[in-house]
Prior knowledge:
Largest sheet: 5 strands, parallel
Strand order of the largest sheet: 2-1-3-4-5
Helix content: 40-55%
Strand content: 5-15%
Number of helices: 13
Amino acid sequence: MSSMGKTSIFSLLLLLLFLSGTIFIFQAKAETLNNAGKSSVRAIFVFGDSTADPGNNNYISTAFKSDFPPYGRDFSNQIPTGRFTNGRLANDYIAKYLGIKDLVPPYLDPNLKIEELVSGVSFASAGSGFDPLTPRLGNVISLSKQLEYFKEYQLKVAAAIGQEKTGELIRNAMFLVSAGTNDFVVNYFTMPIRRKAYTISGYTDFCLQNVQHFLQDLWDVGARRIGVVGLPPMGCLPVVITIYADHPLTSRGCVDSISSVAQDYNRKLQNQLNATQIRLAANGSRIAYLDVYGPLAEITSQGRKYDFDEVSRGCCGTGWLETSFMCNPRSFVCPDASKYVFWDSIHPTEKSYGLVFQARRPTIDYIVSD
Length: 370
């Protein structure tokens, strides 16, 4: 199939592809951080895309939702919450690991009480990205709007517990940022607008400039402990294999040319974050890069080692294209999601999140340590 033909097909699938900018995370053990008693972190705040959205998109007008079965199938009550997986997300497991709470709720949930707000919420929106164009494509919540919601959050909490306690809460909170995949797979590779203006290298730099601006904005509102998730091996996502592989029906290996873009982005991001941490260290910063590329690449290339039977298609439907509304109550679903790296054609299962988390836990410990 020609490159132009593949791009046309991919454009038709735009509504399917508001993916998780990264695949950060895990099914962690139900243990508390060893040094939790020494850490002053008592809240968690999350920004990003579907890897971090626990249901904010339930409350906006967009096609990118997952508040219906079979999503949430492996929650104890089997209730779909709007998380794009079979159970919990990374932020949920991190919050439990830190001893903060079991589940991080969506900020837009109108039923949240002050107790839930004080210990942290997620502002993330499935389909979002660092490029301002990306969230507009799916009518989802941009990172700039997520930041506005955080400022609104600050006012609500300050009204309840006071300005001084709110400032202390935020200074000692853990901030997580998980986005970026949509900018490339959905936006740059699919839509012509950015390709006309940027080479792939130039677009990478453009996105990283926006990352830096967002970090500065977080710093300005009081964030000091910040973890930024890199890109996954994008060429290993089932939907990317389906669209871009030369012979996706018979050979479903990762598409290296697309994964190499993530490698370049991650290298530059890591250097950028290291420089930022050095510059701000004297002011109490703990800013770190969270690598998900390495762990996920190993999981997909050595599936048997981790007791996976399927590494190149999702558990829902055919596993080649289905996500969001195409993974629905009428879809076939595999009997055991723990045998699959991916839940749908884009998002990982809890087990995959768990394995990635275990590899990245030392970095999380560094971010929250006093």
